[in-house]
Structures are given as C-alpha cells and as structure tokens.
Amino acid sequence: MNQSSKLYTSTNIRNTFFFEIIIGISGNSVLLLFHVLISSREHKPRLTDMPIGFLAIVHLLMLLVVSVIATDMFIFQQGWDDITCKSLVFLYRFLRGLSICATCLLSVLQVITLSPRHSCLAKLKKILSPCHSLWSLFALCFVYSSISSNLLIHIVITPNVTSDHLLYITESCSLLPFSFPMKYIMSTLFVFREAFFIGLMVLSSGYMVVLLCRHKKQSQHLHSTSLSPKASPEQRATRTILMLMSFFVLISILDSFMSFSRHMFKDDLIFYCIQILVSHSYASVSPFVFISTEKDITRFLRSMCERIVTI
Question: For the residues of 234-261, what is the DSSP string, one character each?
C-alpha cells in the first residue's frame, strides 16, 4: 500500500477534506442547539421535529468520527491496532446507516403530516408519537446495518508488505477482498438495500409534490389567481424536505456508483477521496438548508450578525 503516501502530500485534498468536516460540524451544532431551544418552548412539537434533531446529532457524530479517520489518511501518526480499525469503521457505517434511515423516516413523516384528514395516512398522525418514531428509526437502522456487519470480519490492519488485493480504507486499515460468490451476494444485498430506501424516498417525495400541487390549485381557486397565497409552515417544510430528498438521492447514486467502481476496478486513492467528499456533502449541507427555513433561527442569527458589525 505504498501508494497511500500520496495522500500525505496532497495538500489541496487534505484542506478540502477538513474544511468540509469543519463546516458540517459547525452547521449541525448550530442546528442542534437551536432545535433543542425551539422545541423546548413548544408544548406540542411537530411530528418531524424529532427526526430533524436526531439527524443533526447523527451527522455531528458521524463527521467527528470521519475527522478521526481522516487523521490516519492525511497525517503521519502511529498505526492503529485491529480493534481500533474495526470499531471506528463499523461505528462510521452504523452512523451513516442512521443518517440514511432518519432521512427516509423524515420524508415518510412529512407525508403523514401533509395527508388530508380523510386519508388513511392521516389516522397515523394521531397515533404516532416521538417514541414510535424513535423505535421505527432504530428498526430501520438495524435492517440497514445488519447487511454491513461483515465488515467486522473483513477489516484488517494494513500489512507492511504491499498487496494489490487489499482495498484501502486508511493508512492503518484495509478491507480484505470477498470471495467470488460472496462478492456478488453482498453486491445484490447492497443494491436491494439502497433501492428500498431510495425508492421509499422517491415515492414519498412524489406524493408530497402531488399534495403541494393540489393545495396550490385549491388556494388559487379560493383566492385570486393573480395573487400567490403565502406558503404555510407545512408547505415550507415540505419544500425543504423535497429539496433535501432530491439532493440525497443524487448523492447516494453517485456514492454507490463510485463504491462499485472501486470494488470492481482499480483502487485509486484520489478517486477514493473524491468519493468520501461526495458522500459527506449531504451531512455538511443539510443543516444549513434546515436553518435557512427556520425563521426563529435566521432572525436570531441576523440579529447576532448586526450586533457584531456594530461593535
């Protein structure tokens, strides 16, 4: 794995990598702080408040774990042992699974929130509670992470001798190659897993678009076609989630394609770094999208900026 030393001299890639991590940690910390403060003042929180707050926590922890992993990629240090390699990589995969499941659950809960009163989904609105949402989230995550449990066996310490059969993860950790039958079994499971979650997001997003178009036609009929009625908080939240779903699906498709290319073709380290930058862009961008749609947060941040400028 002598080629891994290239990363130590790639200053631009290293700076971009850590810049994305710092931006993501800052954004998720602000979102989590204000989300807790705003939620504590409301007697009846929205159905989507818990997944948004949980998503901020997961992204914050995931980026912190990635920053630790990145030190073994870009900074000279003493190598990790086998337990450290397995623990960090599996923890990262688990947190990423939580991120995907929380995003999927958020889109489904928003559909339930927007559903008309006479629909079957509207009945779930009265039954569901934050506790039910939390259990649903962990159930989805268990299904998602169980497919990746084989990483505990195939992650090993990088040997001193160069080997073209190992897949680079960090300077200290590598991934053992799968056997021919196992490779296609795992690839099939991965495809079905990603197709299930992405398909669920696409279906819920499509349903939200239909509900928004229907609501817009009703508003134009009740008011005037020349005047565009002001969007309700539910509509603004739906548009935000739709934008995030579209971005997430795009990132997931690119990440899956890059991961498949690394396993099937030559393992290039620069390509690997680009894949990591792409896969974590959602965790870094999503908090700022949520912050921009929360009026209380933007009002407070605007007042803070004005105070700093006047000082």
Answer: HHHHHHHHHHHHHHHHHHHHHHHHHHHH
Calculate the dihedral angle through the C-alpha atoms of 128, 285, 29, 294, rounding to the nearest 10 degrees: -60
Residue ranges for the chain with pLDDT beneath 50: 1-5, 225-228
Scanning 164-232, the segments in alpha helix (DSSP H) are: 180-222
Q: CATH number of the domain at 38, please.
A: 1.20.1070.10
Name the token pair of 299. 């009002």
Residue pair 103/201 in contact (Cβ under 8 Å)? The answer is yes
pLDDT at 62: 92
* Number of separate domains in the chain: 1
Helix (H, G, I), strand (E, B) or coil at 134: helix
Residue 35, number of CB atoms within 10 A of its CB: 25
pTM summary value: 0.81
Cα 236–239–242 angle (5° rounding)? 150
Half-sphere CA count of 53, side-chain side, radius 13 A: 17
78-109, pLDDT tens digit by residue?
678 888 888 888 888 888 888 888 888 888 87
The domain in which residue 16 lies consists of 2-310
